Amino acid sequence: xxxxxxxxxxxxxxxxxxxxxxxxxxxxxxxxxxxxxxxxxxxxxxxxxxxxxxxxxxxxxxxxxxxxxxxxxxxxxxxxxxxxxxxxxxxxxxxxxxxxxxxxxxxxxxxxxxxxxxxxxxxxxxxxxxxxxxxxxxxxxxxxxxxxxxxxxxxxxxxxxxxxxxxxxxxxxxxxxxxxxxxxxxxxxxxxxxxxxxxxxxxxxxxxxxxxxxxxxxxxxxxxxxxxxxxxxxxxxxxxxxxxxxxxxxxxxxxxxxxxxxxxxxxxxxxxxxxxxxxxxxxxxxxxxxxxxxxxxxxxxxxxxxxxxxxxxxxxxxxxxxxxxxxxxxxxxxxxxxxxxxxxxxxxxxxxxxxxxxxxxxxxxxxxxxxxxxxxxxxxxxxxxxxxxxxxxxxxxxxxxxxxxxxxxxxxxxxxxxxxxxxxxxxxxxx
Length: 431
Ligand code: HAM
Known about the structure:
Layout: H1 3-6, H2 23-39, E1 43-44, E2 50-52, H3 53-60, H4 65-70, E3 72-75, E4 81-84, H5 89-98, E5 107-116, E6 128-137, H6 142-159, E7 166-171, H7 175-191, H8 198-206, H9 217-224, H10 235-251, E8 256-257, E9 269-276, E10 285-291, H11 295-298, E11 306-312, H12 313-322, E12 336-340, H13 343-359, E13 365-367, H14 374-383, E14 388-392, H15 394-399, E15 401-406, E16 414-417, H16 421-428
Parallel strand pairs: 1-5, 7-8, 12-13, 12-14
Antiparallel strand pairs: 2-4, 3-4, 5-6, 6-11, 7-9, 9-10, 10-11, 14-15, 15-16
The protein binds histidyl-adenosine monophosphate.
Keywords: Aminoacyl-tRNA synthetase, ATP-binding, Cytoplasm, Ligase, Nucleotide-binding, Protein biosynthesis
Pfam families: HGTP_anticodon, tRNA-synt_His
Organism: Vreelandella alkaliphila
């Protein structure tokens, strides 16, 4: 066999397997999210992972990092240009329009799933990553902006993260106000052309607002002196922003107004926000979003106010792990390991296991399969992490009983009849 044929095929760089030892953490997080969405009256939407390339180019913007250099785009067998979704908002708008969900009605939607961006992988930044997002349609007042921010804040609160994240807020104003501001900004940057780095020079004609987002220290002083969007807001956007801040103040949500927060996607107007943490290094934005009142119309629908956000699941799980905030009981394992000691006992154990599962529906019971010596059976029982092993050997079979062996406490083993086993386990195992 040639050397290349023998080479093992590995996962694509930046795309991770989720191993069984890690999946309980995700399930813990996902269960919290699902419950929260239910409590806030948001309905789940699931859209395809692949969409027409034009959808993302037209919504996220032709001259954004995502569309210019990060999309996984390919021609399918019909020659259509398709793209693995880099985010969920565009797909959500497409689906909502296509199925008439925006006609004379409001929507509060949420989704979860993989997104794809060809970025340079590092801690907290991957090429396949996962988002939970919410999108709302048909509400133009600041109450819904506050509502989605409160929803995210409650998630942090319930996960124990609230004190570890900061809410940054800004308003981008209306499209018209932003266009006028853009001209002022370009004039200012033109005066300081020698200080601009190459990236910024490129953006000067395509997307000058993004220059404000630059982290280049050589430009920091010049950027500090730049005209501020906040001073050029239209009256309606200013009122909207003031009302949103008042609502957050009343709700007791702390925030920092960051006049340089512009976001990397073109569809935003008015409110934009990010939840950031300092505990994850450079990839510290765990949730981000804002208002995008123009997008539905831009994609061919009727003008529809919209606001939403998305959070990065990998980053949040990393943060929960770093801060040790995932409760022990959420981390998998089972409650009982049922251990038949020979083939005869196995036949009885299969039935006994089913009986216990019927009678104790929340019990996590693992049945020993695959035979083995006494020593290897006991080793498997120990590895299951169950606190209790239920042993079924020749003596037990003869007596229609079982032996309970406590694997985590220093406690005498116990012989109970099979008829009493349900009641005994009910008392022993908390659920
Ligand atoms: P975004 O800022 O591009 O916004 O992404 C939202 C979040 O997804 C980020 O704050 C981050 O937590 C996570 N994320 C983004 N890229 C990566 C990556 N390469 N690896 C790991 N995590 C990542 C959006 O996607 C908008 N669709 C949000 C939105 C919804 N706005 C309105 N509605």
